[in-house]
Every structure is written in C-alpha cells, then in structure tokens.
Amino acid sequence: MSVSYMTHPLIRHKITLLRKEDTSTNEFRKLVEEIAMLMGYEALSDLETQDITVKTPIEESVQPVISGKKLAVVPILRAGLGMVNGILALVPSARVGHIGLYRDPETHAPHEYYCKLPDPIDQRQIVVVDPMLATGGSAIAAVDFIKKHGGQKIKFMSIIAAPEGVDALMNAHPDIQLYVGCLDRELNENAYICPGLGDAGDRIFGTK
Ligand code: PRP
Ligand code: URA
Fold this sequence. Notes:
Blueprint: E1 2-5, H1 9-19, H2 25-43, E2 49-55, E3 60-66, E4 71-77, H3 81-90, E5 95-96, E6 98-103, E7 110-116, E8 125-129, E9 132-133, H4 137-148, E10 153-161, H5 163-172, E11 177-183, E12 186-187, E13 193-194, H6 200-205
Parallel strand pairs: 1-11, 4-5, 4-6, 4-8, 8-10, 9-10, 10-11
Antiparallel strand pairs: 2-3, 6-7, 12-13
Helix pairs in contact: 1-2, 2-3
Bound molecules: 1-O-pyrophosphono-5-O-phosphono-alpha-D-ribofuranose and uracil (URA).
Uracil (URA) is lined by residues 79, 132, 134, 192-193, 196, 199-201.
C-alpha cells in the first residue's frame, strides 16, 4: 500500500483550524469540505482520461477529459459525508455510495448498519472518505465490504490519522492507496486520536 502525507501549507493550515475547540459547527463543516477538495486534487492526479474532439474557434483538436461516471466516492457514515461535496466539486458527475458504520463505545469495534454502492463497481476508481483513521477498524471494514462487492481500484482519504490506524489498514489491505492530511501522535485509552480534533461526526453535525 502506498501512503501519501499531505504537505501543502493550505491543507495543513485548514487542518489546524479544524482542530480548534472553538471552531463552530458551520466553520467545521466548511473546512472539512475544503480540505477534502484540496486532498482530492492531489489524490486524483492519476485519474484516467479519454480523448475527445473539440472544436475551438480556431480548429478541431483532440483533447483529454475525465469521465465522472468512472469515479465513485464512498463516505463512511456519518463523518465521511462531510467530505463528499469537496470531491464532487472536482468531479460533479461522480457516483456516490454509502457505508454506514459506527464504533462500539466500549470495544471500539465497527458495526455496519447501512451499505449501498454504485452497481457495477468493479471498473470504477473508488475513493473512500472518512475524516478520522483511528484504530483503523472502520476503514478496514469499509474496504472489506467494497472488495466483497467487486471493488478493485481503491483510494482511501482521511484528514487525520493515528499511526496505529495507518499500520492496521496497511496490513489488512496492502493494495490500496492511502492519503492522509496529517499523521498525529497516538491514540488515547478511549481510542481517540491525540491531539486530533475530537469526535468528527459530532462536530460536523452539531450533536453530542
Ligand atoms: C468515527 C470516524 C471513523 C471512525 C474511526 O466514526 O468517522 O469512521 O470513528 O475510528 P476507527 O478507525 O477506530 O474505526 P464513528 O464511529 O464515531 O461514527 P460517526 O461518524 O457516526 O460519529
Ligand atoms: N473517531 C473520531 O471522530 N475521532 C477520533 O479521534 C477517533 C475516532
């Protein structure tokens, strides 16, 4: 598995604002969307193109375009939903799947409650989005599910990751490409990322 850590100052700046305890729900949502778009720009740099003929005011010319139908964005619910519009701003005709998982508060193991993917999925470039990669349990379960349904070309984008989550995902799915906005120090005893940003789902949706 390849892991790319974002170094662009704009991404790092926005992640710093995201971490602040006093960032409002409204600002938090906007930042998550903007960071997803900036990370998406990097993660999609190898997107396939096809040539079409266009007529400029001067002459006909063969030029590349991307096919949005070939891309599927798959948020892990809930917090991943906050990143979807950032990717759709880049590729508006991409398809969107959903994987509903929540972490058991005691064991931290992921529980699946809803999954729906674009069909067929096997030829698509899939971009799974979730702001937090903590133990890696949710990410591994999501990629397991996508592979079981035939998904092959899988990228995973997380805004903040713990070293434990990166290692776990790398061991479970060495064939995927991982994009991380910032690698944090460690997990605490409740499997929250330190310094992290708290509970991403609660901060995006204003719940507690
Ligand atoms: C959060 C986050 C990830 C998961 C990461 O979701 O959005 O999906 O935890 O933790 P892990 O790497 O240890 O699995 P959560 O389960 O809190 O659900 P929510 O998005 O609905 O709040
Ligand atoms: N899920 C979150 O939302 N935050 C963490 O720090 C860990 C898991």
